[in-house]
Structures are given as C-alpha cells and as structure tokens.
Specification:
Layout (H helix, E strand, L loop, with lengths): L1 E5 L2 E6 L2 E5 L5 H5 L3 H9 L2 E2 L16 E6 L3 H10 L4 H8 L4 E7 L3 E2 L5 E3 L6 E2 L2 E7 L5 E9 L1 E2 H6 L4 H5 L5 E9 L10 E8 L2 E9 L7 H9 L8 E4 L17 E6 L3 E9 L6 H11 L2
Parallel strand pairs: 5-16, 7-13, 8-18
Antiparallel strand pairs: 1-2, 2-3, 3-4, 5-6, 9-12, 10-11, 10-16, 11-13, 14-15, 14-17, 17-18
Helix pairs in contact: 3-4
This protein binds 2,5-dioxopentanoic acid and magnesium ion.
C-alpha cells in the first residue's frame, strides 16, 4: 500500500488501483502528526476504488528535501575521481558527522513521469538514485520513497564550494511514485535498487545496488538533521547514491531515467536540458506540486 498525492487529493493505492481516500488537504498536514496518529489517519481512510492515475510528487506545503552525501563507497570513489580536491570526500565518508545539504522544496521537485532538468551550463550530469526517508515534524521516519538527486559533476568537480549550484535548481530533484509507510517495510537496509537509462528507445546504461551497502544509520542521519533545525511540515531526507555511471557518461536531453527500489516502486522521468525546455504543462504541474 502506498500513500499518493493525486490531482483529486490524497489516496491509498495498491498497484494502479485506489483503495481509500483521505480527507486531509495536504501531505504536509499528515507530516505534522506523530507516527501513531498518522497510522490512525491512514487506517481511518474512506474505502474507495478506481484507477489511481498518474501520481503527483509526494511533497507539498513547506516540506523540504535534504540530502546526505558520500554515504556509499561508490559515491566516494566517483567524487575522488572527478574532484580537484579529492581528500574532502574521503574525509567525509569516514567522519562521524555526515554531509547533509539542502536539495529542494516542493516547487523544485518532479513527480513520476515529469521531466527532470540537467543544467544548460553544465557539461557532465548524472542521475543519483537514492532511498529517500519521509520524516515527520517529530523526527520520526514515517515512510520511504524513491529519490533522484540529479547532479552536475562538472560544476561540483570544478570546486566543491559550487555544490549548491551543482545540486539545487528547478527540477533537479525527482521523488515518487508515492510514500510507502515505514511500518510496511521490514528492513530498509535490505532494499535492492536498480537504475536504467534509456536513450533513443534503447537501454544505454543499467546498474544495481542495495541499501545494505549504506555506511550510515538512517536514524543517525535524521538526528543530525534535526540537531539545530525544525521541520514543522516534515522533511524528506535522501540518503545518498550507491550508483554512479562510469566516466564519461553524461545525461542527455531526451534520456529517460528509471529508478526502482524494492517495495517502493518505480520512479521514471524524462530528462530535459535547461529549464527553458520545460513546457507550459510542466509549469502547471510545478505549481500544483507547491500548493497545499
Ligand atoms: O558530496 C557531494 C554530494 C554527494 C551526493 O549527493 C551523494 O553521495 O549522493
Ligand atoms: Mg546524491
């Protein structure tokens, strides 16, 4: 069962069918609740049926997206390779304090099937498939979703102080297709993760990994994030990538990125180069994503 945002409200879906509808006006409202109250709200949802349709990004209101970096050996290796200052990545991989950075708010996030953007002023871009934690205002992990931390390797590689430009821009992040409640996932450290990049209708790249390779504990990442900050509408914390396509792979306009995590579903997004190539409809989807 998955909690999804749709154009007609919040719903619990199984496969492609709606099973129940919720009266709440936003996901943010649900993320203000403690786990026990959220469970009760989902249990009390009004049974319903019918096709689920295309889900919207599972984020609204003032909920933020943050991300952890260099939490898998593969990410550390790739950054050491691309960077003019490689030791900072090795240092952070083994340090007690994790790397955490702001990634997006609702209006910057693409839902399933919506385009993600690679920067027009970047020459080397990758998708980053990540397990994303859905955390309520009380620092409790209440669910999981699939994340894509689209990143510019040329800009970050040039100088790590450019990280916000490499990471944070319109549609640099995709989340979806919905939120799987935490109590339905027996072991978040044993989720298979697969990524496939399709170019001109053919598989161009594929790879797989498992969250068992994660160097950090999920609760520890959340606890660092909440140390000196509050998230009244909850926060989505993406936990870092275990898959980085080999050099010189770069995303191209027209590619399709498919990321699948066991139990969490498939997040599929077309890639466009430059925000100027998003269509008017994409803009409408963006403003829907930020309402609530
Ligand atoms: O250090 C830069 C970001 C790393 C990152 O996004 C990742 O490891 O997933
Ligand atoms: Mg990342």
């Amino acid at each position: 069962m998955m909690l999804v945002r749709t154009s007609s409200g919040l719903a619990l879906v199984e496969g492609d069918q709606v099973r129940a509808r919720l009266p709440h006006s936003s996901l943010a409202e649900l993320l203000r609740l403690r786990t026990t109250d959220l469970r009760a709200a989902l249990d009390a949802a009004q049974p319903a049926s019918g096709p689920a349709g295309r889900p919207l990004a599972p984020i609204d209101g003032e909920t933020e997206v943050w991300a952890a970096g260099v939490t898998y050996r593969r990410s550390e290796e790739a950054r050491v390779e691309e960077s003019g200052t490689p030791d900072i990545y090795t240092k952070v991989y083994t340090a007690e304090r994790p790397e955490l950075f702001f990634k997006a708010n609702a209006r910057r996030v693409a839902g399933a099937e919506e385009p993600v953007v690679v920067r027009a002023d970047s020459t080397w871009d990758v998708p980053e498939p990540e397990l994303a934690l859905v955390v309520n205002a009380h620092a409790e992990i209440v669910g999981y979703t699939v994340g894509n931390d689209v990143s510019s390797r040329s800009i970050e590689g040039d100088n790590p102080l450019y990280l916000p430009q490499a990471k944070v821009y319109a549609r640099s992040c995709a989340l979806g297709p919905g939120i799987t409640p935490a109590w339905e996932v027996a072991d978040p450290y044993a989720l298979g993760m697969r990524m496939r990049i399709v170019r001109n209708g053919q598989q161009h790249w594929s790879g797989e990994a498992n969250t068992s390779e994660l160097k950090r504990r999920l609760d520890d990442l959340v606890s660092y994030l909440f140390r000196e900050d509050d998230f009244p509408d909850g926060v989505i914390l993406s936990t870092g990538t275990a898959l980085v396509p080999e050099t010189p792979f770069t995303l191209q306009h027209g590619d399709i990125v498919e990321i699948e995590l066991d139990q969490l579903g498939l997040l599929r997004n077309p890639v466009v180069q430059g925000k100027g190539r998003l269509s008017v409809n994409d803009g409408e989807a963006r403003s829907l994503a930020s309402s609530g």
